[in-house]
Amino acid sequence: MKFLHTADWHIGRRLHGFDLSDEQQNAFDQIEQIAQQEQVDGIIIAGDLYDRRLPAETSVAMVDEMLQKLNLTDHLPIYAISGNHDSATRLATGTPWFKATNLYLHTDLSQAFKPVEVGDTQLFLCPYFEPFDAQQYFNDKSLQHLDQAFARVVTEMKQQFDPAKKHVLVAHFFAAGSSTTDSETNLTVGGLAAVPTDLLADFDYVALGHLHVKDALQLPTARYSGSPVKFSLSEASQKKGVWLVDTDQTPVQLTFKAITPIHDVKQITGRFADLMATADDDNVNHEDYVGVTLTDRQPIPNVMARLRDVFPRIVTLGRTDGFEPQVGYQGESSQQIQQKSPMTLLGDFYEEVAKEPLSPQQEKWATAALKTAREEGEQA
Known about the structure:
380 residues; Purple Acid Phosphatase, chain A, domain 2; Double Stranded RNA Binding Domain
């Protein structure tokens, strides 16, 4: 069997205020083209279809259209799971009839233990979960940390192994020893939230999501697909794409297929005058998203606005001495910000600082606090 492995679409993501929907649609179109050209038997999506648990209506519509295009129009089976940025409840809507079109979308830990049988392969679709979920499923409060919980999960999966078939795990977590970039949610606290890679040894292939760089983990039979779009300047030098996984080979054969962006993400360093002089240089793509580091020592009046005339998608501006005259281009007007709900503003602020979305429990606390504040304000 041949599968296309992708993950971390993060539909709805922005880059320092810039809307990335065109980039994401472009990446999707290339994923679809690769799947058709390679005549894959199915598409694996290893979590984080959305960028946040409460996606905007436009993001929901975009994901729905993408899944329908692959599954209903192209008749490609889909094997997907929810990630830590997804709302498992929202993604699960429609699950009862998904299987009728070979769309398997697992959002609950209990679904991980019944493999999807595809030709010579068993696919175990394990959505993102917390230790508490494992405690509830196994009725075992001793499963305090993710490594303990995941060991128990793998043991349970192995009881379902058909020795005559290949075994593929689809999961969304941080594997011990992986490298990260600053656009990814930090799940590690003292190493307790990392999954030891030796727990993956009994699978013929492990299709991972969560880390955005394909080379974050380089095991022969376990890989991150990486995100199909660059989401931060720390990913500027990375190649984005998807893995083709052929389970007919032993060991499985992996082939990386690159995705070409509409607008690349780049870091550029130089003197202000030299950068401005590139305005008429056809060899410089001025439409790329750029982080600019100036080597000038003297102050430059209205520097960000002047640079933006040449590089309209400038996202950060700093200097080699560490001083940052202006950092970031938020891309939203004060009017747009004022139109956002308090919960949306709080979620945006929290994610900007913590590099991860509010958890469902935090959302409940924040909603309750805002309700109390609103009621007190009405009574005043």
